[in-house]
Amino acid sequence: MAETSGGLGIRERTRRAVRAELLTVAMDLFADKGYDATTIDEIVAAAGMSRSSFFRYFTCKEDIVLGHLQAIGQTLADALARRPADEDEWTALRRAFDDVLLAYHARDPQHALALRHMLESNPVLLAGNLEKQCRWHDQLIPHITPRLAPAPADSDTDARATAVIGAALACLEAANRAWRATNGQASLDKILDDVMRAVRPGAF
Amino acid sequence: MAETSGGLGIRERTRRAVRAELLTVAMDLFADKGYDATTIDEIVAAAGMSRSSFFRYFTCKEDIVLGHLQAIGQTLADALARRPADEDEWTALRRAFDDVLLAYHARDPQHALALRHMLESNPVLLAGNLEKQCRWHDQLIPHITPRLAPAPADSDTDARATAVIGAALACLEAANRAWRATNGQASLDKILDDVMRAVRPGAF
DNA sequence: ATCGAGTATGGTACTGAGTGCCATGTCGGG
DNA sequence: CCCGACATGGCACTCAGTACCATACTCGAT
Fold this sequence. Notes:
- The structure is a homodimer of 204-residue chains.
- Helix content of chain A is 73%, strand content 0%.
- The first copy, chain A, is mainly α and 204 residues long.
- Chain A has two domains: 10-62, Arc Repressor Mutant, subunit A (Orthogonal Bundle), CATH 1.10.10; 68-199, Tetracycline Repressor, domain 2, CATH 1.10.357.10.
- In chain A, helix 5 packs across helix 6, helix 5 runs parallel beside helix 8 and helix 9 (157-181) crosses helix 10 (188-199).
- The radius of gyration of chain A is 19 Å and the shape is elongated.
- The first copy, chain A, binds a DNA duplex (30 and 30 nucleotides) through helix 1 and helix 3.
């Protein structure tokens, strides 16, 4: 039918609106009194809805903060798919990170900074963050494996791809951390270049 | 005064014994019916003690499985301290991993395998595992920084050290995963060599 | 205009992890 | 033999997360 907005039905649109509302209300509370100290009851009270409904929009409290991370896996996979087939894996990953940085950090640096702050001040969120990154591996492996150097005899290509992806994500993580340490003043792109060259000397 | 065993008072010795007992009882239950499905009430019932006491020996349920991880950070730091000062950072880390592998995997491969299995079948444990590894960084940075190539002008050495450590740990993680996939048949040492060479071509 | 299906909502009751407190017991040293 | 430190068990509580049910609301079809 005549979908007025974005090709989505009204059901889906209101659903997203409610979720977005809930999200901003919750993040405001988190910023105000901290993640741990904020209960779900407080969030739903502030948003004017019931506890039951909350869990229909978010699987758990963590999901408020880390929910968007799942999508980044796909962003990375898509970005890698667009890189030339003969590009080496390290450069391809570095370029793929450009897309993520563009879509998240460049779009709203303040939000990225605040999120990073929460992450680093809360072990549970940090843990969840790292675990979500592990989920990206499976999506990225098919785009990395063909770029690897020929396997040495009886070596496991899959393990090598996993390691390379994990190493690159560790670089992204380290760069993010350093960037946040400068309060977003430094250039995240430059930091990322530096650390990825530190891990693989002579890269790019 | 006359410490009969290991230079520890009787208090500390009984304390460790109780903790060890609790640990084996819990791990048996986990192996039997799974981590999530086992409640703390069941553990303490099987061990014949109260719930209150349990939390005096373990900070949380996760601590049963991941408690030993904290010590590995120190093991790694000590191992790095013993490496020659002029050894490059990647080789030093690879050799430091030898110590960890020797102390944990070689000592009791079955236990390491079972633990790995639990880790990979439970997102919460995996997350906790990764978060604990992050805690190692601060201990390792001082041993890595001096081995890095001269910093390029305005680059942050600390970020580079963090990234290198993170990348190496990602290799260790990938190797462990691949090793567990072969049910411990493959040589973990060899896998680790392969993946660390994949991340840094021409290493060692 | 009405009906029925699908969906959103609120409420209630439950489990299980983790915290805080207190009263009691037990062991070791003087 | 007693005192103090530490260990224990029990209780009451908070909070996250699950399951289920009853009630609205909305949309499309007749």
